[in-house]
Amino acid sequence: MAPIVSIRNLTKRYATGFTALKGVDLDIEEGEILALLGPNGAGKTTMISIICGIVTPSGGTVTVAGHDILADYRKTRSIIGLVPQELTLDSFETVWSTVSFSRGLHGRKPDPALIERILKDLSLYDKKDTMLRHLSGGMRRRVLIAKALSYEPKVLFLDEPTAGVDVSLRKDMWQLVERLRAAGVTIILTTHYIEEAEEIADRIGVINGGRILLVEDKKALMTKLGRKQLTVELAEPLAAIPPSLAPFGLALAGTGERLVYEFSTTGERTGISSLLSALSQAGLRVRDVSTEQSSLEDIFVELVGEDR
Hints:
Rossmann fold
């Protein structure tokens, strides 16, 4: 099956000479949740803005459901929903009229039942007749989400959707994302909350300096790049690591009562059995052993650090 979004050699250079995107290639599969991670200025928002028709690319191609974003602008824009970072709303409109207008703007026939369901899903229905200027920042962000969902997009972009919002909205947001995925909507989100990406995404993409560093299945990424750490708690503390243990690259932690050993999750052998045998031969008594696997955040920091 062809990807629902296909990006080839996408570049964006601004008049100032700054290059925001440097030959990005990316395929997004229908029905998946792709989390795009990257530091500020990495190119996330620029890429999303180009796909959604807000920014014109300097080079390359983007197709959505087989339609070119430039040649078939109207068609692709009707397929794509966008929840931007900025709270850009008409303050003197009501919630209901704003969301209903968004549906009509994208060529959809009126559907009050759908608008009602969306507002209820986002805990906005009791505010349907309230002017936007009277809503809190969190409620206004819910309205942005409702606007994007009003015309039933096949592809939904969420650009930092929970940045600076309360825990309640964050919880509602991810529950809604799961329901949308179940309905077949493809979701691409950018987020600074790496633990959220780790929890809900199918694939993880890392972008930095205008380039895609990696796109991997989340589980495969954790297995491929994740490292485990073995902590050995000793019965008696050490002043220094015995020379016979040097090949293991151990680190002394705490006040000398813990030895830390790092190993790859993908190697044929972890070396743990050899380490424990060496500890015994060195006359060290082990009180306890525990392991800890690196998180997605650890992997992200490592990848971005290497790219600098």
